[in-house]
Amino acid sequence: MSEVAEMYAGMKRFNQKLRAKYGMPCPECQRLLPKAHPKILLPGHRCKMHRYTDPRPELTQADYDAVSGGDQ
Q1: What is the pLDDT of residue 41?
Q2: Is residue 10 part of a domain?
Q3: Which stretches of sequence are listed as region Disordered (predicted)?
Q4: 47 touches 41 (CB < 8 A)
Q5: 70 domain residue, yes or no
């Protein structure tokens, strides 16, 4: 693969790990659309459909470093 493709694949894997560790399903999606898959929100992010903002504080650099685990 090209270097750019490898870089984007690495970013995708990192975001998947980040969402798995710190993600939370949007409570409005769960309440209003119980049969649909809810959007997974990271702390401080916003659900585009329902305008719900996750009230948890933003992730720190230490949180990002814990997820990366030396992959870089």
Answers
A1: 96
A2: no
A3: 52-72
A4: yes
A5: no
Q: Quote the pLDDT of residue 68.
A: 85
**How many other CB atoms are found less than 10 A from the CB of residue 66?**
14
Number of other residues whose CB lies within 10 A of the CB of residue 9: 11
Q: Which domain holds residue 33?
A: 22-61
Whether this prediction's pTM lies above 0.85 is answered by no
Are the CB atoms for 39 and 23 separated by under 8 Å?
no
Digitized pLDDT (tens) for each residue of the chain, 72 residues in all? 689 999 999 999 999 999 999 999 999 999 999 999 999 999 999 999 999 999 999 999 999 999 987 655
Angle ∠(16,32,41) on CA atoms, nearest 5? 20
Q: Give Rg (Cα) of the chain.
A: 15
Q: What is the DSSP string of 14-50?
A: HHHHHHHHH-EE-HHHHHH-TTSPPPEE-TT-B-TTT
